[in-house]
Here is the input.
Amino acid sequence: MASHPTSPNQSAASRLRRSTRASSSPPGTAGATLPGRSRRRRACAFHPSADLAGRVVALSGDIPAHFDAPLAPHHKLIGRWAASRETTAKRYTRAEARQRIERVFDKAVLDILGSVEFADFRVVVLHGEEDYPPAIAVICDSMGQLELGWIEDSDAPIPWRAAAYKALDDMLARALPIFGYDDLFDEISMYYWDGATDDETARQWITEYQGVDPEYLDELTLPSNMESRRPEWMIAKNAGASAELPNGLRRKLEELRKAHAALGKLRPERNAWRFDLQIAYEYLPGIEECSTLPPLTLVPVEQFAREVDDVGRHGMEYGFMDIAGFCPLPDSVPVDDWLASLRVGARFLLAAQDLIQLDPANL
Here is the structure.
């Protein structure tokens, strides 16, 4: 739908950072802005047919005055849906039709995602090519460490903090492109030690295959060194059992689990939060050049800054795999079904947000 796509040539930030939020779009832009959307431009840009919802929705100039006139596939997708919501019969000029589609679709997306504040999202509509139907993607525009609030910074008992962290680590990836400590360790293992996971094998690789003098081994990172840097609240075995947790925390964890389960029950073909990389390849030429690493992490950068920077280097140069969901929409799948699944995922993200924003003093 967009006649002015995001440029693929603008560079990303120079290093990973904690997840941050930016101000809204400047005055005069068309369409709504999701609260706090990052202005970071992706190094791996979408196909020029992309349409941004929640940012600038710029329909091409050949949009006719009536929804039922010939339109491009992605125009028809949103146009038919917008027309179905009209309560009165009304004729639109070309400009009015374009603005109406923008407003109705933007409002629907903003109503669902507007309350999610701990990560920034935008929605992209692609028209598809050849035999592929239009598709809608949910993109995460946040990058770096997810702010963990009281889990990381408070003096609350370790079993409470570890229980909350474990829940996020186990579940968040269902709707958020994010990696945890185990993912980081696997990446570092390949990056530093050719897949070794113990000190002895890692030392052998470093000395025999990299030619490092054994006397310098103490200066290098080894698997045990990484393990020793994990704060106690990151270690799953430190998580308190449900019966040992305060009622308020137990309720929030149960709400998160229920929302996670509801998201998992969605039909794959109608799930706004499902991401199949092979399907995305068909719509997004050049995406294979991006890093396979997600843009967000649950790993605290204070303890693992070097490792996070090392594994994120490719993503900083070519773009991260920042797609939260990618859903092709043939005629058999109504836009309303996609919006309903978007709402299920938003409820899950809000449950995670509520857990992070808890005040342990009130538990």
Remarks:
- Residues 199 and 225 are 9 Å apart (CA to CA).
- Confidence is low (pLDDT under 50) at residues 1-70.
- The chain has one domain: 51-181+232-362.
